[in-house]
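Subject: Protein record for review, amino acid sequence with backbone structure tokens
Concerning: The relation between a protein's sequence and the shape of its backbone.
How to read it: Take the token row as a discrete description of the fold.
Enclosed: The protein record, placed directly beneath this head.
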Amino acid sequence: MSLALFRWSVVLLLCLFTSAAVAGEVRTRKNKAKAPRLVSLPGGHQLHRDTATAYQRMAQDAAKHGIVLTVTSGYRSPHEQRWLYEQYRQGSGNKAARPGQSKHQLGIAVDLIVGKRTSKRYRWLKANACRFGFRRTVRSEPWHWEYHPRSTFPPVAGFDCLGRKTRPPEPPTPVATQDPS
């Protein structure tokens, strides 16, 4: 093999290895999930910032109706989700999604104290949560609510999230005017 051919072979191999390494690095960067931007709530739980904002608006509206919303679980780290899943698999924990499959790991799922399905709190959530972008996504877990604002639509004016008619807003009180004569 001539020296010129050898040099071109080495250059070609270096180019191939370099481009493969760069492509692998790019793929690795794209596959790594970005950590959610978390906000702490009173009580120490965290949610994605958009979820937290919507949750706080929902909790304030619930309070106007005498309903107190309490978070029992928000964001979960991959380590925490793995531990919960292992507990579930061993039969010593509640149902838990596989690590990487839980919306808690994105900070968009929130578990709330709801009581029974007939409780005032649960009924309020069913009737109003969609107005804030929340919906139940796990049929067997009435406490589990997820924030999906792009696909959870608010009700039509005059109706609640269950399609029931709501009371119309009270008309404004007329202001007395003085007769200029």
